Amino acid sequence: MIPDEIRQSIVDIIHQEIWKTASSTTAVIVPSGLVIAFITKNWFLNWVQNKVSHKFNQKLEAYKNDLQRQLEFYKNGLQADLEVFKLATTQAQDRRARSNEKEYDACIECWNSLYEAFFAIRTLSSSLSAPISLNQKPISIVKEILEDYNLPKADVTHIIKSPFGKGR
Questions:
Q1: Residues 6+ positions from 132 with CB-CB distance below 8 Å
Q2: Which residue from 119, 127, 122, 118 is spatially nearest to 146, judged by alpha carbons?
């Protein structure tokens, strides 16, 4: 049975040598593989991230430029609308000022007319302190009296022809 023992010894020695070789090889290969895998993984992730971020940055820049153009378009539109509004407001204020001036002038004119009417009535009423009977006066004197009141000729004629005048 010696050959079996020898054979077993040889197998044991081979296993030990294989394990020594495999373990030392494995000790070198596994860490090297891990380092290579780590470096490759990091390189691949960075490469993918750069590609994706580059495309994303391009799209983001294009979107930003589009928004900037739209913003400028809206700003220009609002600026034009603001100019139209300012012009319309200025015109309305000018119209309002002119209208106020006309109203003020009309008020002054009305006041002056009222003032003149007041003094005309006052003068007229003061001269009528005693009632005048037109029935007892000749037509020429009635015409003189009525003309003193600055009545229009048509009114004077109407008064003279009325039942209260001499024209009856």
A1: 145
A2: 127
pLDDT of residue 147 exceeding 50, the answer is: yes
Tokens of 5: 């023992």
Using the predicted structure, report yes or no on whether residue 94 has a pLDDT greater than 60.
yes
Cα 102 off chain centre by: 32
Q: What share of the chain has pLDDT > 90, as a percent?
A: 10
CA atoms within 13 A on the CB side of 144: 6
Chain CA centroid to CA 67, Å? 21
**How many angstroms separate the CA atoms of 61 and 83, rounded?**
33
pLDDT tens digits, one per residue of 113-125: 888 888 888 777 7
The stretch 17-29 carries a mean pLDDT of 72
- In the chain, domain spans: 2-129, 130-168
Nearest-angstrom CA–CA distance, 121 and 113: 12
Its sign, for the CA torsion 149, 152, 156, 159, is: negative
